[in-house]
Each structure stands twice: as C-alpha cells, then as structure tokens.
Amino acid sequence: MEFSSHELIPVLPEITLLIMACLVLFVDLFAPGKERMGTYIVAMVALAVTALVTVYSYQGAQLVLAGHYQSDGLSLILKLVMTLGVAVVFLYGRGYLAVRGLLNGEFFTLSLFGLLGMMIIASSGSLLALYLGLETLSLSLYALVGFDRRSVASSEAAIKYFILGALASGILLYGISILYGVAGTLQLQTLQVEISAVLVDAGEYTMLLGLGVVFVVVGAAFKLGAAPFHMWLPDVYDGSPTAVTNYLGTVSKLAAIALVFRLFADGLQPLVDQWQPMLMLLAVTSLIIGNIVAIAQTNFKRMLGYSAISHMGFVLLGILTGTAEGYSSALFYM
Question: How would you class 282 by CB atoms within 10 Å of its CB: exposed for 0-12, middle for 13-18, buried for 19 or more?
C-alpha cells in the first residue's frame, strides 16, 4: 500500500506530543531547584501546543496509515478534554509534590506519555493500534503509581497494578488473536464486515468468535476496573500519591470510554448479542459492589476507588444498549 505524506497530518497531535514529552525530559536535566518551574512551564506549553495542533490538524473523518488510525469528531473531543484534564492535574500536582519532596521531571514526562497512549486509543482504527495505545498508557501508569519510592504502600500498589495489568493484557491480546484468526483482519471497520459474514454463514467459527469476545471482555473489564475484576483499583488509588490518584480518577477514565467505544461500538458491533449480557453482568456487579462497599470505607482514597467502580457500572449501562443513544449517554455521563 502506497504511503502519502498527507496521511501524517491527522497524526500530527501524537507526533507533536511525543516530541514535546522528550523535550520536557531534556529540559528537566537542566532545571534547577525543587520547584521544577522550567520543567513545569515546558510541560504546560506542550499541552497547549498539542491542543492547538489537534484542532488545526483536524480535516474531518479520515482513515489513514493502512486503517490503523482514524480521525473523527469523537477522537477530536476526547483528545481536547484529555489534554485539558492533564493540564488541571499538573496545576494541582506541582504544588502537592513539591511540598512533599516528590516533584521530579519524570512526573510530567510519564503523564505526557500516558496522554499519548490515551490519544492513540481515541484514534485507533485497528485492534493493533488499540492495544499499543493501551499498553503505552498502562506502562506510564505503572511507573506513576510507584512514583513515591519512599512509601511501602506506593510500591505495593505499583506491583499489584503491574501484575494484574500484565495478566489483563495477556487475556485481551489472546482474545484479539482469536478474533484475528477468525476474521483475518485487525482493522475495526473491516472486522465488522468479516464478523457479519461469519455470523451469516453460521459455521464452525461462530463459537470461536464467542470465545474471542469472552477473552476481550474479561481483559477490558480488568483494564476498566469493573467488578468483579476490580481487585487492584482501591489499593492503587490508596497507595498512589494524591496527584497520581487525580490522574487515575479523571483523565484515565476518558481513555476507558474511548477503549469501550472503539472496541465494542466500532469493531464488535455485529456481536452485540454476545457481549451485551456480559456487559450487563459487569454493570450490575459494579453498581452493587462499588456503592455498597464504598459505604463501609474509612479511607477517603479507597472510597473514591469504589466510587470509580460504581461509575464504571453506569457507563457500561449506556454501552450495553448497543445504540447510538446509549453511546452518547455514556459519553455525556463521563
């Protein structure tokens, strides 16, 4: 397939953010003092430049880079809100971390790389891009959670998050491999067509598709923190520095909604009858466990963790309808 330089225009926000994140890391080498004012300013400029490039590089709905990257209205809105959310986290986080002697340039750099992963998820046009964006975000979050090396709770939370996150990644990747084996494509739009053809034939691959959906839903549920795959979330919220908890509880939730939209609304829509009951079970379980267990909490951060679980249940209620109205309601709720 021929490559055109025009295909890079929709990808400019991600390219810009990658370059600026590396620049932040370089500037931090020469940033004097505990306040890291130079690093902070460059990081905020990076977010502003990324937002401007996101707006001015948007040229309508496009599918580029061999179908692995798509630019549409959903990705535009999510990217801008994600960028704004990270800016708010930086505004709060700099003062909080500086007072506690935790302010390092790595906080800004890892947060920017996490934002890069979120933007890739929002613009994913294939299962491959979706997985790469998810892992870029996850690796950044693992490091951010264990950011306070002096805290035993932070280290324990990072280890637990890494182990369960790696398990979830393996489960999700196995489900993707099954779907690829049946459909013969990773591109989300083509995947819909191929899955529909398999369902029409009602052949031997129908059961295999169902198995792939089970693995994908379980892997995604781990990543989303939906009950009963929520074991890591309260501990991670509790053990992380508060600035990182803000990042986890706000911006990363937008990545979760982008993941669900691209995965179920774009790629697996023909299998709605198979993933709908599973999402319904996850939603009800998340609402029950998240709200009831939150009442018994005496730790504010753990209560926020269980609150996040219940909120994910409400989001899944909108997604499981399988309709445009349900998707828009879930996005509005987030």
Answer: buried
Q: Prior bond to 228 cis, omega within 30?
A: yes
- DSSP-derived secondary structure for 239-283: HS-HHHHHHHHTHHHHHHHHHHIIIIIIISGGGHHHHHHHHHHHH
Alpha carbon 45 to chain centroid, angstroms: 23
The closest alpha carbon to 224, from 154, 283, 268, belongs to 283
Question: For the chain, which residues make up each domain, given as ranges?
Answer: 1-123
3 state DSSP class of 236: helix
Distance, in Å, from the CA atom of 139 to the CA atom of 117, rounded to the nearest integer, reads 9
| Cα–Cα distance, 212 to 225 (Å, whole number) | 20
The structure tokens listed for 7 are 């295909």
* pLDDT per residue as tens digits for the range 43-60: 999 999 999 999 998 888
Given phi > 0 = left and psi -120 to 50 = alpha, else beta, which region is 126?
beta
pTM: 0.93
Predicted confidence (pLDDT) per residue in 172-205, tens digit: 999 999 999 988 888 988 888 888 888 877 666 7
Question: Which residues fall within 8 angstroms of residue 152, CB to CB, at 6 or more apart?
Answer: none
Measured CA to CA, the distance from residue 147 to residue 97 in angstroms comes to 10
Q: What is the CA radius of gyration of the chain?
A: 20
